[in-house]
Fold this sequence. Notes:
Blueprint: E1 13-14, E2 26-31, E3 34-38, E4 45-47, E5 50-51, H1 53-60, H2 66-70, H3 79-103, E6 111-115, H4 121-128, E7 132-137, H5 140-148, E8 153-155, E9 167-173, H6 182-192, E10 193-204, H7 209-214, E11 228-229, H8 232-241, E12 244-250, E13 264-271
Parallel strand pairs: 6-7, 6-9, 7-8, 9-10
Antiparallel strand pairs: 1-5, 2-3, 3-4, 4-11, 10-13, 12-13
Helix pairs in contact: 3-4
Amino acid sequence: MSDSAPVFSAADTEKVCCCLCGDPGRPVYDLPPYGVRRCSHCTLVFVSPRLQRAALSRFYDQVDYFEGGVYGDQSRFSPAMALQRVWTAGRLNRIDRIVKARNGRGSAGQRLLEFGSGYGLFLAAARDRGYQVQGVELSRPAVRESAKQGLDVYCGQLVDAPLTGPYGVICGWDTLEHVPDPLAVLRRIRELAADDATVALSTPYFSSLPSRVLGQRWWTLKPAEHIWHYTPYTLRLLAARADLVVTTVIRSPLTAANLTRLDSLVVLLRPARRSSRRN
């Protein structure tokens, strides 16, 4: 991130409660102007106070938000970009196998939506495999970069995007920890997903070894941007509330879809069977 990154104060923040229980939570870490809290009921960890929506948009509109961190230095070989490509291929391979088992044909013509699509690396790779792709991304510079590749990406939040389902595949890579209301996002995903859809997510997790050992020095804590912190348990709770079912949780840093990541989950979900859904 550049030296011109915006600086935020308490005036840029707001207090929030657990999106599942409405509980204000108990303090875990105090990181002014932010606070990290844990719900007293469901144990979901979240940031409060956190950046207000306008301040959050300013944060993601930094031109080098992706190039400075997520993708590394674009002007030369970047280990970060090399890993992004490994993760992309590993994740697409898993999704392809599920899609082929489901329809017997594979990816050709399948509609795929990615929320938090960044510069469009995953979308472009999915398009090359025959998917019909669309994306949603909050960062305006990233949306402009995606447009240069001919990708259809809406600038904003998924819950506000004018999309029409059904989609056979919906993905969100390292995005669910950033969104203002993850329960609203998962419910919107369920609305957009076909009944036999594959939903695939990745996210850091608060119960990981690095998080437990490093505490508030955990490199992935990042309270300005990572405003929800999950565990496999709280992810299952959120999914169930949105009528989604977690089918696979990948933690291994030796798997291509999650290579080298000691504090990350890759999660596969499906819509709940309609006969078991609540009225």
